[in-house]
């Protein structure tokens, strides 16, 4: 994880909107973002490689910012507390293609919550993981998958057992 500074701007210009800035100490290529949701229904993430964009007072202005994730759903039902405090880990499969074309110095999280049930909408425990440079060559960077003989090797995973759709309901009713 990279050392970051988090600034929670609280409620945005609109009801049910909150904006959080995350500043990185030095420019880095983004790998993954993890956080604990705090009653946000959806999140949009923008990045910038220009520190002056982070200093602008107009938080809703997107000039100098590049979207890497748009309206990612964090809660299936904004009026119910069920998924309101889940942990999320967002990575390359979630981000828009080309998100890592250049190193970034900041991220801006736009949180949305259409329900009036929740007074505070935020993210907690935000972590930004970056890709370190490998020694011995400019531009060579680690991607989180192990490299073996020039090919990427995926980590071993164990498939989860899923119940057939007809059995799910009866399983929970037992």
From TrEMBL:
Source superkingdom: Eukaryota
GO cellular component: nucleoplasm
Segments for region (Disordered): 137-174
Cited PANTHER family: NICOLIN 1, NICOLIN-1
Protein name from the UniProt record: Uncharacterized protein
Source organism of the structure: Guillardia theta
